[in-house]
Amino acid sequence: MKKTLSHLAIISLLVVSLAQCSASVAGASTVSSHVANLVTSLAHQSVCGHQPAGFATCNAFVRSAASLGEYPLPGNAAPAATVGDNGAYSPAFLQSAYDVPALAAQGNGGHGEIVAIVDAYSNPNLITDLNYYRTYFKLPTCNLGVVSPANYGCVIEQVNQAGDTSPLPATNPGWALEEAIDVESVSAVCPYCQILMVEANSQSMSDLGASVNTAVLLGANVVSNSYGSTEFASETTLANQDFNHPGVTLVAAAGDEGYGVQFPAAAPNVVAVGGTTLIQNSDNGTRDGSETAWAYSGSGCSQYEPKPSWQTDTDCAHRSVDDIAAVADPNDGVWIYDNFVASGLYVAGGTSVATAVVAGLFGVAAGSTPVQNAVENLYTHASALYQVTQGSNGSCGNYLCNANLSVNGYNGPTGLGTPGGTNSSFAALAVANQKTTSSIATTVFTTASSSTKSTAGNGVAATTSGKSGKAALAKAAAVKKAAKKAAAKKAAKAAAKKAA
Predict the structure, then answer these.
(1) What would the pLDDT profile of 260-277 be if each residue is shown by its tens digit?
(2) Residues 6+ positions from 485 with CB-CB distance below 8 Å
(3) Rounded CA separation 115/197 (Å)
(4) Residue 490: CB partners within 8 Å, gap ≥ 6?
(5) Does the bond joining 167 to the residue before it have cis omega, within 30 degrees of 0?
(6) DSSP string, 317-359
(7) H or E stretch including 412?
(8) pTM to 2 decimals?
């Protein structure tokens, strides 16, 4: 039986969430007037409240499906003149919009790849809700287990900031919704990717940054960060120590308050993800729609982060934000299921959705030629993306807020464009392949999985092995990283010798 959710119920529970967030950070306001006006006019609710610099807000909106009489109809014809699958986009529509079948055919389709999601606090219903969503939309089940490159198919693991399966952090309704949005959006475009959910102790950037380091240590190929903070002077320290992992793709939401920059999206070695208004006409596996810049996507010129060498735009002396974009407008959002904050299906939007979708697409494309810096690689292969040259998110007078003023295809709200414009998007989405044939690393991973039980028929780990497993996985990750560094050094020497 389909469970419904009233718009009033969402608002009531999220007010509790905002109060909890505000109580944890002295002086924090609830929702900015800009976003509050948006919520009022469009009947959307901001998932998390605005926080002071150094503390993150999750960048998502939700609206009740029941309030509009909408329900997805997977596999059936939706009523005429409706968006996507009867009011929002289902996995089949998203996979079509971003040419996932074409991406999957060129790589390994996400098998063995680990997409980590970093958020604050915990959602105790995360895994059961994810599998309700996957079953509803006819995606394969995602088993609880220990993520590993040796797995084939989806495995989900939920750990705390230290990388242990218990104790998990306290719960918070707003961040719990954010987690549901993230894991389900990744699943929508990469059903076979493994998901490592790392839950930070709090929404402080220091705790979230520590959780990113944990995700990388545990072998993640891609790390999704659907949150952001107002920029602050000391962010450059965090950018170097927590958001700089060569060989691992880090993605972060640009924000949902229009023109303006957030951290960690501003970090030079993080893929900054903006938002679009997506119109996708069918779910036949092929893109047949269009995108424009979402009016509330974050973008701009960083106050503190240096300009990376691969950015050549001239109206920003520092780091320009964004790099890439995907669906974010809650008017044409994505279907999500949650049974912790409330109970039922609802529609989600915001650059949180865009970030998780992009993270999943990187997972689908993994298995291509490894790269050391995913951001730089996007600029090298910009022609492989679908340029977005319409729409704006403010009045800055140039391309940093106005896609209509794009320079060489680049603009702030959508960056270089969106994946799926061409089948060669695979080149732009190349990530480092974390799998290794090293006998040492293989031995360590075998040890990490030795105390787990196998799910009949699919050979993936079905139970976690606790701290000992985490220690083994951490050691394996360190071994792989060292091996990769040694291989890169060897290749550089060989190239230099050849050149000489």
Answers:
(1) 999 999 999 999 999 999
(2) none
(3) 9
(4) none
(5) yes
(6) SEEEE-SEEEE--GGG-EEEEESSSSSEEEEEESHHHHHHHHH
(7) none
(8) 0.81
